[in-house]
Amino acid sequence: MKVLYITTAYPRSEKDIITPWLVETVQLLQGKAIDITVFTSAYQGLGDQTVMGTRVKRFRYFFARWEKLTHDETAIDRVQKGFLNKILAFCYLLLGTMAVWRLCRKEHFDIIHVHWPLPHFLFGYVAGRVCAAPIVISFHGAELMAVRKKFRLLRPFLRWAIARADRVTANSTHTVRAIQEIFNRSVDIVPFGAAVSTKGGQVRVEMAAEKSILFVGRLVERKGVRYLIEAAAQIASRYNIRVDIVGDGPELPKLMRLTAEKGLGAVVRFHGRVSAEELPRFYENCDIFVLPAVIDSKGDTEGLGVVLIEAMTYKKPVIASAVGGITDLVIDGQTGLAVPPGDGDALVRAIVQLIEKPELAQRLSQQGYEHILANYSWGVIIDRLITLYQEVYSSHSE
Q: What does pTM read for this prediction?
């Protein structure tokens, strides 16, 4: 079976760390005899490649110097920054449509799978018509939030895409609800961004001299990191804690100022963006993982929370806000502790509870780990995808 993956971006080399979950998905599917070609955009003149064994077809859309609409930043954010980026977006759509038409005229694909349907369903629709192939579209949350708050004029396009696709997938029940607000139809939950290898770390149950609290993620408003820092200010007066913040983003200067104002220079450590090789060490060495997500001023929140999956895979107790797709992962008192978003006092109580009750931390860690194995392990995800492909292909062939 030949499948064309249409995506915003794909790694430019083996060292490029963007969309690691998509790379893993593609490689595992190819190991199951699914022949995948990735169709994506160029970056500063970069052409067709073979990346980690996968054929990548890149379309050019402008002069090489300015081909930076994707890869380094989300295209939705980049388009809003200046008139040139709006011109780039127009060229992206026009030349991408022409390129996928040419590709599908040369070779046939059995299934067209579109990630981030805004705007890529346009490419998928053309490919589907040329190949007479069914179209699967997958939402990961960001485009739905963008249409809700920033690009409302594109809502009819998204409604058309959802209605015309043969199958629609989402990464969480939160994303399913957002899709069905636009067009009510059945949606399959296939959490592409969530599946991780099972590493099976161990939770530390002894009362360590210092408790390590970890956050991993992009430092943007919706992550709610300021609530973690404010909670640390209350907890540090009673317990010996360390807060490790891994990640970078526009909120970093503000968070560093808040840390200084609270006198937490010796408690809160900012590590910036770390490599894929370094990250496991942070998960292994932490005692508690916290994702204090909120609904930000733009109405955006977590579509799923992949970092929670990673922490739970390492058998670490997690605390997270009961918001967005997080509720699929953190079931309060069963797979972790859930707190109301933006409730600093509740966050303090949850952290203290895990510090003072190591037996509870151990139980939540084990149950969280088992939840991931049953619902988010690579074997489960890949089997779900292959079944979906077989169903949509058979239905289209009848």
A: 0.86
